[in-house]
Amino acid sequence: MQDKRIAIAHKVVIPWLTLLIYKIMSNQCVKRLRNNSSHVIFFSKFCIKSTDCTTLAEAQAIQFVSNVTSIPVPRVYCAFEHKSRVYILMERIQGQSLWNGWCQRQPESRARILDQLRSMIAELRSLQPENSMEISNVAGGPIYDQRLPKKSIWGPFRTIGEFHRELRNGIKPEDILHEGTPTDLRRLISFHERDWGRPVFTHGDLSSMNILVRGDDVVGIVDWETAAWMPPYWEYTSAWNVNPQNQFWQEEVHRFLTPLPFEVEMEAIRRKYFGDF
Fold it and tell me: According to the UniProt entry, where is the signal peptide (predicted)?
């Protein structure tokens, strides 16, 4: 009975403390004093993530990866929704972003880090989805990606083909039979309509900013908000399409992910016709 009361107290007290700390630490004056412009609140050995795009699915993805792989991810202490906003209380991993100082690293240091990343991706690729054909988050719900056009919440979809059709605004192969259809659009739809097999578990944003290191050791992969069961090429094309601050990383992606230049070309065509990535 005592253990049950303690468990119930933890379910109430920890979220309450999380909200209190977040409110204090996110105060603009406090953030300026602590020189923290991040969307994550850091304190002691903990951090709280709560943004307009934070979802419970991110916490579920982190816990899933922690349970079934050896990939270093933050420990999740609690995740909850309060007044339509999600809060995730996590372990603060002691390390620095790979973005910080990558270009100054020696080739041997880079190679050691990339080897570790390659092994971690192999672990992700070995995972099997429960709903074998669905495009969905780890809990079977919708996927989130604010880089996609028009909306950030998509699906879930019964198949990769359904996801692809949604990406191209519902256009079907029979809709492009007329002679005026651009050749590259025909190529894209042919690419989308192939037999893809099963989706694979995908981080979805393997930017150098989301990889934490200490020395030459990868100690954390963070920001799992876009993690989902996705088409096999999605990890590579998502990582390759870097943001302007991360341009150098485009030259490194093929060193830890299987290069997919044709798929990159197809994604460029998709963005051309149906919205930027």
Answer: none
